[in-house]
Design a protein that fits this description.
Layout lengths: L6 E10 L2 E11 L4 E5 L6 H9 L6 E6 L2 E2 L10 E4 L11 H11 L4 H15 L14 H13 L5 E5 L7 H18 L3 E5 L2 H7 L2 E6 L2 E6 L1 H6 L4 H6 L6 E10 L2 E6 L7 E5 L12 E7 L4 E2 L9 E13 L3 E8 L2 E8 L9 E7 L4 E4 L7
Parallel strand pairs: 3-8, 3-9, 6-7, 7-8
Antiparallel strand pairs: 1-2, 1-4, 4-5, 9-10, 11-12, 11-14, 12-13, 14-20, 15-19, 16-17, 16-19, 17-18
Length: about 375
């Protein structure tokens, strides 16, 4: 394994009897990366984290941490620290002792232990809580203490298993920012499990998208969002998710003519001048046309390269503060357009929608794979 990899998972399989939970997992990360494992419930992300930690025995494959084969090593011998969904704090100990307990077990000298605990408390902004007990803390404060207990050990690898899912929505956003700040300050190597794709997009340097125990795509948040490899990733990542509309793509003299059916009868006709016609070598092709909500708008777009406007029936209008979302029925699905906050639109009316076709994606109707 190359020295620069802090973690390498090679051909990992995990079975429970006849049920294969993880299928041929291959992923590696370099020191200082923030790698997020994301996917729907039951996709295998927590099982993968558990295999990396040593809490779950792998069926086959190899795991290396910091250049050392840890496939069958005990968790205590992997130089890792975990932060769980449940805070798992000792209720009879102060915050200071909870944070420093791992150092206490390792017989670290008192002076060094106190300095490390103080440094971590300063980083997490919980110096004033060191003499309290967990029962006297809020959920967010308890999560900070749990993080402090991991940070104080300075391991090779941090493993976070849905650490924010017990917090309310506003506190989750605050703690998400705190975790990002801590990562930037420490340069720690982190593997982070979440089912929340917004959390994944905002925290990760790279994202691993899983479905049914299979890695669908590994990439930066920008790559995952803008060039999803299949319709599943396109639909799962993003809030609202990418619109996937059935339509017909026909190459025509260096451009692509699109027809998207509508319930009103006449299809919407658009012309894509960005995509190479060679994507459709066999002439007219039934495809899934992918456009993010912000690529369907009433706002004036700056790039002006491949903009097409069509009148659409707005079925539902949802004001959302900074934006207004409109539901339009296109290509057999309810597509969402992201309009300006003060857009003078009403449900049940026709309204011009500008399609930014420089942001278009095409997917195979049968396999869902990107074309």
């Amino acid at each position: 394994m190359p020295e620069q990899h802090i973690l390498s998972v090679d051909n990992l399989q995990k079975k429970y009897g006849d049920v294969q939970v993880l299928k041929d997992i291959n992923v590696s990360m370099e020191p200082g990366e923030f790698l997020v494992l994301v996917g729907p419930s039951g996709c295998g992300k927590s099982t993968l984290l558990s295999c990396i930690s040593g809490l779950t025995e792998v069926s086959s494959g190899a795991i290396q941490i910091g250049g050392k084969d840890c496939t069958h090593a005990e968790p205590a011998n992997r130089d890792i620290a975990m932060v769980f969904q449940s805070y798992a704090l000792f209720p009879n100990m102060s915050v200071e002792r909870n944070i420093g307990f791992g150092l206490e077990v390792r017989k670290v000298a008192d002076a060094e232990k106190k300095k490390k605990v103080a440094d971590v408390a300063d980083l997490l902004k919980i110096e004033h809580l060191l003499h309290r007990r967990p029962a006297e803390l809020s959920g967010g404060q308890r999560q900070r203490v749990a993080m402090g207990r991991a940070l104080v050990r300075d391991p090779k690898l941090f493993l976070f298993d849905e650490p924010l899912s017990n917090l309310d929505a506003k506190l989750r956003v605050t703690m998400r920012t705190e975790i990002k700040r801590i990562h930037q300050a420490t340069g720690a190597s982190i593997v982070y499990v979440t089912h929340d794709q917004i959390e994944a997009m905002t925290l990760a340097t790279r994202i691993v998208v899983l479905k049914d125990g299979v890695i669908q795509q590994i990439g930066t948040p920008h790559e995952i969002y803008n060039t999803p490899v299949n319709a599943f990733v396109a639909d799962f990542m993003g809030s609202p998710s990418m619109n996937l509309m059935s339509g017909t793509a026909t190459p025509d003299e260096g451009r692509i003519r699109l027809e998207i059916p509508t319930p009103q009868g006449a299809p919407i006709e658009l012309v894509d001048t960005t995509t190479a016609p060679e994507v459709f070598p066999n002439g007219p092709t039934e495809v899934l046309i992918g456009l993010r909500p912000e690529a369907m708008t009433d706002q004036k777009l700056n790039n002006g390269q491949n903009l097409q406007t069509a009148n659409c029936l707005l079925e539902v209008v949802e004001p959302a503060g900074a934006d207004t979302y409109a539901v339009v029925h296109l290509g057999g699905t309810e597509a969402i357009a992201r309009l300006s906050a003060d857009a003078p639109v009403q449900a049940g009316e026709m309204s011009p929608i500008t399609f930014d076709l420089s942001k278009i994606s095409y997917f195979d109707v049968t396999s869902g794979n990107r074309l």
